[in-house]
Amino acid sequence: MEIRKLHATDAKEYWSLRLEAFQTFPEAFATSFEEAIARENPIQQAAAGLEAEGSYTFGAFVDGKLVGIVTLVQEMREKLQHRANIYGLFVKVNYHGSGIGKALMNETLNYVRNLKGIEKVNLSVVASNEGAKKLYSDLGFKVFGLEEKALKLDDVYLDEEHMALFL
User: Fold this and answer.
1) At 32, is the pLDDT very low, low, confident or very high (cuts 50, 70, 90)?
2) Residue 4 forms beta bridges with which residues?
3) What CA dihedral angle connects 6, 7, 13 and 18, to 10 degrees?
4) Which of 55, 83, 67 is nearest to 20 (CA)?
5) pLDDT at 35
6) How far apart are CA 58 and CA 81, in angstroms?
7) In 59, 73, 123, 163, which residue has its Cα 20 to 30 A from 83's Cα atom?
8) Has residue 37 got a pLDDT over 90?
């Protein structure tokens, strides 16, 4: 397995994996599959996002194929610059349990520790996602809040736990 920061040249493979994430676990993402496929020029948008200042997306590759992703975004406003946020962790289902999610998170946390001024990393997770919550807890994240009815998928409401790791 290789983990590396993704670049614009990875946009097509990255976007394909994001679409798979939206379809496979619609309850885990604020963006719906339908919203995603309705975007104009999604590959170009993805390429721009992969090169955006303060945004770092890491990919896990097995045999040269992208099988997992996670994004770290620094806060840019003056009063928030001590924080970063993690979004969009996804590992292909057939690689669950292989340690790829943990490896992606460790790489991301190692990277953020080298960014100037970052003291805290935040993330949100659907409260019923026990596997993800265990991963984050094992890495030192602690729950600091619960948002009831944070997402609504069809007629089902989903709560989200907000977690933080102080560096």
Assistant:
1) confident
2) 59
3) 60
4) 67
5) 86
6) 21
7) 59
8) no
Indicate whether 39 pLDDT > 90.
Answer: no
Q: What are the distances in angstroms from CA 110 to CA 1, 44, 76?
A: 17, 28, 20
Given a contact cutoff of 8 angstroms between Cβ atoms, the answer to whether 50 and 6 are in contact is yes
DSSP codes of every residue in 74-93: E--SGGGTTEEEEEEEEE-G
Q: How far apart are CA 6 and CA 107, in angstroms?
A: 13
Instruction: Assign residue 155 the CATH number of its domain.
Output: 3.40.630.30
Residue 4 identity: R
pLDDT tens profile 46-58: 999 999 999 999 9
- Mean pLDDT over residues 150-160, rounded? 94
The H-or-E segment that residue 56 falls in is strand 55-62
Cα–Cα dist 16/65, whole Å:
12
Residue 16 above 90 pLDDT? yes
Sign of CA dihedral 120, 121, 122, 127: negative
| Residue 119 neighbours by CB distance under 10 Å | 12
Domain containing 67 equals: 2-166
